Amino acid sequence: MSAAALETRGLCKSFGALTVADDINFRLETGARHALIGPNGAGKTTFVNMLTGALPPSSGRIVLGGEDITAMGQAKRVKRGLGRTFQINALFRRLAVIDNVALAVAERRGVARRMLRAASTHADVCAESMDLLATLGLAEDASVRIVDLPYGKQRLVEIAIALGLKPRVLLLDEPAAGVPSLESHRILQVLDNLPKHIAILIIEHDMDLVFRFARRITVMVQGEVLVEGPPEEIAKDRRVHQVYLGEQHHG
Amino acid sequence: MEAFFASLVSVAFHGAALGMILYVISVGLSVTMGLMGFANLAHGVFAMAGGYVLTTAISRFGVPFPLALVLAFAFVAAASVVLERLLYSRLYAASDLEQVLFTIGLIFIAVAVARFIYGTLQQPVALPDYLKGQFPLLGRDFPAYRVFIIVFSAVMVALLWFGVERTRWGAMVRATVDNRAMAQSVGINTKRLFTLTFALGSGLAGLGGGLGAEIIAIQPSYPFENLVYFLVVVSVGGLGSLRGPFVAALLIGIADTACKYWLPQYGAFPIYVATIAILLWRPSGLFGRHA
Amino acid sequence: MSAHAGGYSADPRIRWIESLPWIVAIVAFFALPEYLSLGARILIYILYALSLDLIVGYAGIITLGHSAYFGLGAYVAGILAAKAGIGDPVVQLGAASVLLEIANKATTLTGGADGLSGVVVAPILGLFRFDIFGKTAYLYCLLVLLLGWWLVRKMIYSPFGTSLTGVRENSLRMHAIGAPVYWRLVLVYTLSATIAGAAGGLITQTNQFVGLNVLSFESAGELLVMLILGGVGRIYGAFVGPVVYLIAQDFLAKQFPEYWYFGIGTMLVLVVMFARGGILGILDGALVKLRGRP
Q1: Is A120's Cβ below 8 Å from some Cβ in C?
Q2: Where are the beta strands (DSSP E) in B32-116?
Q3: Total structural domains in chain B?
């Protein structure tokens, strides 16, 4: 069996007596389209924060492309190809759209610390950032500041920044959060067009989006993996209906 | 040996008096910084105002000393409510930079006003006869006023701690320091809580400034000169904590007195070094919660 | 926009209006010979404010310890304060205080609270003597400022400058895109401290006297006031602030110190409440209104 793009073994996290992640064994295959779902407070965001290094796990291991990254800092994980987006926009609000993306591109290309030449003369960074914006349909907004940008487009910039890092593994934390369902198809379109080789783990509450996008789904409840499988199986699973889908229909 | 022991007792005693004053002044700053996240550099202004109220009340209007203490508290607390409602409350959501600038501005204004009214000279404190002289204890003589400062402050501290631990107001303060959003969602009126707490903290600063007028001289540059001490107490003790600043204030009071007694040539230098070392070791203070 | 924000789409070329401060400085040199020492002081404070703007305006970190670097030329101090101070004004304040205390207590070296007089300044490059009318000093300061401005401007328009604004806008996200935020800040502190140290050196050289007050908390606060008055994070705020502040101080402070302090205090409160962009911010707003739309 080839190494997974990302794998966790017995990952646990507790705050005092409260266990928010309990023995999570999870495998994200290369090029996967994987969704992580579960009711509020199931520990999904905690799980993602442990993957990115924002939160140290209490025990267990995290392996990225065959390499143990459990003790690695956030910046090193990014350098090794682990990118993420945020559930709540975490953008550079008073900077132009192009700068938001270019910061990430420059960081990846290792030129972000240079101070002798003007930023705008780094043609490679500028061109790559513009290309990226063009593929997301944001080319016209390049010089608009984030504060002046509509919310739906801000969600796309959120993804653009992560793509600027050319990740091998991309964690999308509720990419459609707060976006009206009429506009969320635009986000789905963008997700569908992401390069095939990137392994994507998406956390999302919008079940339409999840079932149209994901080819594999993991359901988490109270810090534990309840069940994992292809969408058809998950849709039929009685336990999932009880704890999660049932809640959606009746709650 | 006996001489050394005597000076040890004396340093501990005077240090404790200074520490008590520092605590009564600074505890309000710790709570407002912890509760509202407001970097109020102008806290010393309230202490200075308390000092001026006390000395003026006694020397100009012949008010008896205990009543002058009450006045110092009440006057400063009332004035702080006006300031909080008019100015501070608009900046709760502002950046650190804006809060710092605003409060530095208040310091400048207060310095100017104090200078305009009182001139640059230090205000003398006219103590009542029963607080002058010496107080015999365990075969030694202690200055009566320092004994009064320690005992009186200890009572105030006990009242304050009791209030925070046992009253509804205290429970609300603790809940809000812990998690403001949660506190609001369970129906705590944080706006009124802020005003009340701010007034109490400022009033205590006024009381401390008046009580300590003999130890920390009342003159216009007071808020600038003593700011470092108040900030050190709060940051070493830990933001939003009650007990942390108490320990820190006593440590600093005693250390400062000891340094002035035994190592006068180094001034406040050892204290600053110790402060930096402590904050490098524990950035959120000795008793602070981790950010 | 007249605010110099830098960035990957910003045109880094120098605009004609940016020559204005230098023209004013040269005109002042010929037209106001009796004010050259005040002029030199203003030039030095502009350099000092520029160094602070890098940290406060661009990296977005509030510091009250900047006078420490003004007092000491400071590569080493840069690392110290960056280590000690990220996000914590109190530690920085402590650092400034320590240096103040060192200077205060090392009496034999610095003259203590009486200050250090008898600083002998050699002729610049062995050629130009400092004259009593302050002509050499003024031009020397102007040259150093020109160099400092050129460096700061270059930095602001560079990728490094943009990454600093990134830290200011969202340091969490900077971590998430793999930026070594801590080391970026160490770097900017070091650069800023070096420039502040140079400005401090200029004060000593032109006054031929060092007072302890250059290290005090009040002096750090005063500098912050000048920068805010002009406008933060826009290069030329650091030019406008010291000019207005120091000229007003020269005319008012000696006669009416109470009113002077009252004036700055009130101004600070008003700036924070109503005009967060400082003088240049107000001008910007007025221009936008004049043109009808942004």
Answers
A1: yes
A2: none
A3: 1
On the question of pLDDT at B279 being above 60, the answer is yes
H-helix or E-strand containing A161? helix A151-163
Q: Please check whether residue A77 is in contact with residue A52, taking contact to mean a CB–CB distance below 8 angstroms.
A: yes
The 8 Å CB, 24+ separation contacts for A242-251 are A243/A39, A243/A219, A244/A37, A244/A38, A244/A39, A244/A219, A245/A207, A247/A39, A248/A207
pLDDT of residue A241: 80
Question: Could you give phi then psi for residue C63, rounded to 5 degrees?
Answer: -135, 140
Instruction: Output phi, psi for A109, to 5 deg.
Output: -80, -5
Are B and A touching by the rule of 3+ CB pairs within 8 Å?
no
- Work out the average pLDDT over C31-48: 89
| Tens-place pLDDT, residues C269-289 | 888 887 767 777 778 777 777
Measured between beta carbons, which residues in chain B are less than 8 angstroms from residue C102? Answer: 269
Q: Could you say which of C10, C170, C179 has the minimum Cβ distance to residue A112?
A: C179
Task: Judge whether B211 lies within some domain.
Answer: yes
Q: pLDDT at residue C95 above 80?
A: no
Over pLDDT 70: what percentage of chain C? 68
Q: What is the CATH number of domain A6-250?
A: 3.40.50.300
DSSP β-ladder status, A169-173 and A199-203: parallel
Q: Which domain holds residue B100?
A: 24-219
Tell me the average pLDDT of chain C. Answer: 73
**Paired tokens of A138:** 């944001």
| H/E segment holding residue A16 | none
Residue A36: strand, helix, or coil: strand
Dihedral angle of Cα A97, A101, A102, A105, to the nearest 10 degrees: -170
Q: Do B87 and C273 touch (CB under 8 A)?
A: yes
For the question of an ipTM over 0.90, the answer is: no
More confident residue, C268 or A6: A6
**How many angstroms separate the CA of residue C158 from the nearest CA in chain B?**
25
B260 or C31: which carries more pLDDT confidence?
Answer: C31
Check if B83 contacts C (Cβ < 8 Å). Answer: no
Residue A184 CB coordination number (10 Å): 20
Give C175's contacts in chain A (Cβ within 8 Å).
Answer: 54, 74-75
Query: Would you say residue B77 lies in a domain?
Result: yes
* Residue bearing the bigger pLDDT, B106 or A249: B106
Q: Which residue of C has its CA nearest to B112?
A: C258
Query: pLDDT tens across C106-164, in order?
Result: 444 444 444 444 444 444 444 455 555 578 788 888 988 998 999 999 999 999 999 99
pLDDT at A82: 92
- Interchain CB contact of A126 with C (< 8 Å): yes
Count of A–C CB contacts within 8 Å?
133
Task: List chains touching C (3+ CB pairs under 8 A).
Answer: A, B
Mean pLDDT of chain B: 84
- B227 in Cβ contact with B44 (< 8 Å): yes
Q: In what order do the strands lie in the sheet with A82-84?
A: A82-84, A169-173, A199-203, A33-37, A216-221, A224-229
Given CB atoms, is C169 within the 8 Å cutoff of chain A?
yes
Residue B160 belongs to a domain: yes
Q: Which helix (H) or strand (E) holds A170?
A: strand A169-173
Highest mean pLDDT among A188-197, B203-212, C210-219, C232-241: B203-212
With 0-12 CB in 10 A as exposed, 13-18 as middle and 19+ as buried, what is C253?
Answer: middle
Query: What global pTM score does this model have?
Result: 0.75
3-state helix, strand, coil in chain C (%, to 5): 75, 0, 25
| Residue at B58 is within a domain | yes
